User: What shape does this take?
Amino acid sequence: MTTATAPVAKSRHVERSRSRSAEILGRVWGDTSGRIAVPMLGALVLIALFAPWIVPHDPTHQNLAAAGQAPFWLGGEGGHLLGTDTLGRDVFSRLLYGLRLSLVVGVVTATGAALFGLVLGLVAGYFENGVGMVLMRLADIQFAIPFVAVGVALAAVVGPGIVKLMIILAVWGWANYARTIVNSVSQVKRMDFVTAAHTVGARTPAILFRHIAPNVLGPVVILWSTSAGVMILVESALSLLGLGVQPPDFSLGSMLSDSRTTLRLTWWATVFPGLAIMLVVVAFNLLGDAIRDALNPSARTRSDPELW
Amino acid sequence: MSEQHVARADGLVKEFRLGGGRTLRAVDGVSFEVRRGETLGLVGESGSGKTTVARMLIRLEKPTAGRIDFEGRDITALRGSALRTAVRRRMAMVFQNPSTSLNPYQRVGDVLAEPLRVHKAGDAAERRRRVLEMMEQVGLDPAFAGRYPQELSGGQRQRVGIARALMLDPSLIVADEPTASLDVSVQAQVVNLLQDLQRRRGLAYLFITHDLALVRHLSHRIAVMYLGRLVEIGPAAELFADPAHPYTAVLASMQRDTEHRILPTGDIPSPVDRPAGCGFSSRCPLATARCVEQAPPLVPVSDGRRVACHFPGELRLGGEPGHRAVPAPPPLALPVTGLPTLKKGG
Assistant: This one.
């Protein structure tokens, strides 16, 4: 009897955890900002993915004869949708390709920093008088050092490269998250439900990740969504210093930096990548809002009782 | 050692370090035992140390001095997995406020499955079965397993809290004012549930409360705390009918008609620089020079009763025992601490 029911119950259990994430996704979709963010980000990701089949020109092909042409709808010659830059490269094609690297940099570094910062923030808040003190002083020190200086120094040691830069950004980013949640963590750890977890014998990792983490996740998600945009911009600043993406590779950020000196001549080569970054940032922020609300059980009216 | 009691506290002391090298002695040499299947009521005003005693007993705090035995084993200094098997598995706690004692991000079913998961009891299917079974036992619709605590009423949440405490089939439950944050009608239901579970499972309760009507109704024995010390302990009915300690008499008189109430005067001493003698001497109508100088030890006065007073039984109650239909609202706060200041102000 028991042996017969066990596999059934087990498969129900698996189904339950799948439908639980489906429930959260459903709530993101049900949220107004989520319903804007999801198609927006979806479109951006699809465009980035299928860029090789969409682009009208080779994004790295230089044609000095066609340099600095305005978009065709502003009377430019050559029929370029968003004009050409000072080296005669098609801005629209470059924008689609640049989007690929920028999206990857934004998502990967922001996510890495968020995970790293969440774990260290939980540890720092939980052991607030020991390890926590040390960690938070380290964060203070880190805040006092400009990242660019560190980036230059590290690049000198490990050499430039976009992957190395992403790792450095992700590691450096922990302090922001940790500092944001450390006080909430030390508040939550004194709440009755954490005491209750102690009285049933729960171990420290379970208390940290099962009980405290969900209660401090809201600000982490918001910070994650805003920092995805910030990371894209930081990457562009560092690429300008030669620390990040190296030509002939490029990102939206490096397109901005490359063209900013000729803003008066070819403003389209700066403005459109800038608008693209803005779209990405807005989409991430909206998504962050929607996820935070979806994770918060008190913001919902009623859950599906079939889910347990 | 006889197995008549499930837990025994012996000379428990808890000191908290304050700033400036001062210490607060929240609990000062408390000894008692909880017998199998009984309810021991622990009463006392806010700051009397009753919650600290409970937290030490269930080993959320480590005593500064003293010894705790539980199920025939010294648990005073246990840690890690020894603590987990000897205490966490066998002793449980019910909290005052069910809204803060349940993780808002955990579904009811997960809350109840957690004790089983921690102690690796059964596989997922078995745990699920036991959770649903327990929900029925405490009068919760098993369909609530997928709900979050916020979707439940206060009484339902407290039933979840009680069910969580029962999941590992403990021998002792420490209940810290489990009805204080509930509506009166719901209080009665929760109390009935606790009594019903005690009868069916032979549970022992350490029941902390300041609700005197409730504690008399629910407890087999009552322990009265004042300023970190146990001043009297004994069978519930006797203790309230014929109090031996003046402070117990004050508490018991609150159940009687207004003109028979004994209102203590003076201020509550601070546990930081506590008086050398009896903690109650500054407010006691019977206090003499001896009370101020010399602290009375807790000594037996009759069978099963112990009291810490130089003049046991001398403060007598007047009037008839009152009968209240419903548990009284917290009767201690205003008469004991509020009135003296009101008089001064007027």
User: Anything to note?
Assistant: Chain A has one domain: 30-58+88-307. The mean pLDDT of chain A is 84.
